[in-house]
Amino acid sequence: MKAIAGGTAAPHKARIDIWETLIRLVIIIISLICLLPFIHVVSKSLSSDSFVIANKVFLWPQGFTIEAYKKIFADASILRSLYISVIVTVLFTILGMILTICAAYPLSRTQFKGRRVITFIFLFTMYFSGGIIPDYMNINNLGLMDTIWSLVLPLSFSAFNLLIMKTSLTHGIPVSLEESARIDGAGHFRILFSIVLPLSKPIMATLALFYAVGRWNAYQDALFYIKHETSLRPLQLKLYYLVIQASESFQLEASQVQLSNPEVLKASVVVFATLPILCVYPFVQKYFVQGVMLGAVKE
Question: What's the pLDDT at 95?
Answer without folding.
Answer: 92
